[in-house]
Amino acid sequence: MTDPVRVGVLTCGGTNHMPGVWGPLLDPRGRQQFLGCRQPLTDMVMTHVWDIDTSASRTFAEDHAGLQIVDNYAAMVGQVDGIILGDHDSCLHFRHLIQPYLEAGVPVFLNRPFALSMTDAHDIVDLSRRTGTPIMTGSTLEFAPEVHSLRRDLATIGAIRGCVAANSTSDYSTHGIHGPLFVHACIGGGVRCVAYQTPDWRLPNGILTLEYESRNGEPPFFGCIQEIGGPLGWIRVFGADGSCEQTFDGSLPLWLPILQHMQHMFRTQEMPQTHDDILEKTAIFLAGFRSAVDHGGASVRLDDWRAPLLNPDRYPEGYFD
Fold it and tell me: Are the CB atoms for 206 and 180 separated by under 8 Å?
């Protein structure tokens, strides 16, 4: 038997998976359940919570008995084994929120999109590298069983000639990001240009096109992702010797692997993906964003650029000074 992994919840308000998904899965005996889960499925226990909105912290603590509310975002240092930072609307300030934890050696999971510019992304990665403290970020779909099945099947189809995928989205920033992230998890990187054609990135309905570099002397190829409302996720990969495909199942097994990877990182200090993987998938996501916002859907290379916030900034100016 091992001691439970003590988890600090860093933000529970805003646009956040903690109240509706991860919180109920980590504490299925609380006031809410997710997909009927009523028994603990991990060794993680939420012990502390902070949010800039104190009413959100109180509500979350009422839903999950035993949680201690702290009044400062850095106050969980020394109290927890890992941090889950789940609020999309705090993305602009991820670096500041996690700095005390990385400097103290506490591993951190950051919800997508990790960063709204490559400058911010590099700052977070550099801090993780400098302190030696692991970080993790990503989409639930990246760690789904279907990804492992597709990777296995790729060995049977020869050199990749292209792929097509569908991703259920609301806006590009919070859910459209699932598309490029799960495609990256399925077939890897090497993207040199991205285009995102959409009437409005804040709404579903668009096509994301990925142009890949040549691999092992094979011709370059393209990937296409339908960013739509509806189906959770689907991908088909075409190869020189055939094709393979997977449809993502929205049942409970989809949601557990990402939590299991968090737990493993919190317990062992081992990152499930490299820093370079994190930077590459962030750059792909941001290039699509830049294409839609600044270039009318034209193809753009991966470069630094600052994406807009979806919702108003939750933090007053100068809060982290």
Answer: no
